[in-house]
Amino acid sequence: MDKVITCFKRRPGAVSRLVCFPWAGGGSIHYARWGNILNSSIEVFAVRLPGRESRAKEAFSQNMQQIVDEVIGVLLPVLKEKPFALFGHSFGAFTSFAVADALKRLHNMEPVHIFLSGASAPYSEIRIKAPKRSELSDEDFLKWMTSIGGTPPELLSNPEVLKLFLPALKADLHVVENYRCNKPDDPFLSCPVTCFDGKDDIPHDLQAWKEITSGDFTIRMFDGSHFYLKDPGNEKLLLDYVTKQLETSEMDYM
Predict the structure, then answer these.
(1) DSSP summary character for residue 127
(2) Closest by Cα among 53, 205, 199, 48 to 119
(3) Dihedral sign from CA coordinates of 236, 239, 245, 249
(4) Cα separation values, 49 from 63, 99, 123, 155, Å
(5) pTM of the model
(6) Whole-number percent of the chain with pLDDT over 70
């Protein structure tokens, strides 16, 4: 499991687990830090995908199915132990959704809450019509990266760092741009779903995510653009909200 999951703070006594999925090109460290911040009732598992961090020599995932199969293959025994929630930003929102869908279909399990950030629902018109970024030349790709913010300018201007960073980002975008799923006829989840987004990001069809659950559906907007969650003030507000929701679900579960 240690190959696929980064966990800074093991908490055997935790009441629930928060499983976090990275944004495109992202690693596991940003979320793994949350394990040091959140209270002792929550254990944080940050997913580490192939082709980055300690898995840098591995080939990138070619499609969403590979990611889902690996994550569920590793996590299934652990997820059966106690309630769990899923969190994903951008590309991570799609992987969270795909994992939740597979867990329900194949194992009749669902999270106590799913948190989806910075992304339109995969079956929404906005998302289906979105331009394919992974096919841009490196130069145009970098212009686009600069426009959405969140990547330090010194990183974008360093050719050596870019050589390491761009392949992972383009590989993840290739996965998400080729991921297809139909709008559910009926909600397949009954747990609460919360969508987060930055007020200055390009508009996302957050409302379309409501189709996946018969449970509570909430949208929360934050100041900032695509990477609003990297702002320390926003991160605190977001984690306070996540904690409160998981504590509420713990009460329901008991």
Answers:
(1) H
(2) 205
(3) negative
(4) 12, 14, 24, 21
(5) 0.93
(6) 97
Of the listed 113, 174, 204, 226, which one is catalytic? 226
Give the strand order in the sheet containing 113-117.
5-6, 42-47, 16-21, 84-89, 113-117, 193-198, 217-222
Q: Which DSSP string do the residues of 144-201 spell out, in sequence order?
A: HHHHH--S-HHHHT-HHHHHHHHHHHHHHHHHHHT---PPPSS--B-S-EEEEEETTS
Size of the chain in residues: 254
Count the helices and strands in the chain (H runs, E runs): 9, 7
Q: What is the distance of C-alpha 61 from the center of its chain? A: 16
Architecture of domain 5-253: 3-Layer(aba) Sandwich (3.40)
For residue 38, pLDDT beyond 60: yes
- Cβ within 8 Å of residue 87, ≥6 positions away: 18, 19, 20, 21, 31, 96, 114, 115, 117, 242
Write out pLDDT tens, residues 63-99: 999 999 999 999 999 999 999 999 999 999 999 999 9
Given the DSSP bridges, would you call strands 16-21 and 42-47 parallel, antiparallel or unpaired? parallel
Q: Catalytic annotation on 204?
A: no
Catalytic residue among 16, 28, 61, 90: 90
